């Protein structure tokens, strides 16, 4: 009678190991096929972080001052936008900074973005609302106006300046400028002749 040693007949174990190896290889292939979709290219991430808007107006004043400076902007044939009217058909005020009040960062800045860049005159005003810091005039505020001419173009600074605020409650015009139909700054259009925006008050 022929006897088979069970230690020498391992066909069941070989089949089991082959199946496990095939399953593991299939899993590795699936992971490799999914990797490009799980981790998108860095270029797409950079594009999604670009700021929105066609015309961007930013103001910045010293962070150590517990001072509320308000930005007011007006697009051609539109309503002025500021702390009491945060949106119009063109502009939106995205940040109303009230100094150090309810501000975890203690950074002093305000920013407005527009949807579109209609041709005509733009007005940028600053209003020194109040100062909880010991007031030492003047307060220096940096003002930057940038324009993005298309969705893919980077924003380009067109007007940059510094405005000195001397009195609490006073509104001043930082810039008035004109854009043409191609969102280009009209030559010799920049000046700061006062035009009230804050509810028609100076």
Q: Helix coverage percent of residues?
A: 10-25%
Reported for the largest beta sheet, the result is: 5 strands, antiparallel
CATH-defined topology of the domain at 51-179: Immunoglobulin-like
Poorly predicted spans: none
Separate helix tally: 2
Number of strands: 8
Question: What can you tell me about this protein's structure?
Answer:
The protein is an alpha+beta fold and 202 residues long. It has a domain at 51-179: Immunoglobulin-like (Sandwich), CATH 2.60.40. 17% of the residues lie in helices and 32% in strands. It has two helices and eight strands. It has a five-stranded antiparallel beta sheet with strand order 3-4-1-6-7, with no helix packed on it. The N and C termini lie far apart (116 Å). The model has no long low-confidence stretch (mean pLDDT 83).
Give the SSE layout:
Elements: H1 11-38, H2 42-48, E1 55-60, E2 67-74, E3 91-95, E4 109-114, E5 120-131, E6 139-147, E7 156-165, E8 171-179
Sum this structure up briefly.
It contains 2 helices and 8 strands; from the N terminus they run ααββββββββ. The protein has about 200 residues and is of the alpha+beta class. The chain starts with 10 loop residues before the first helix and ends in a 23-residue tail after the last strand.
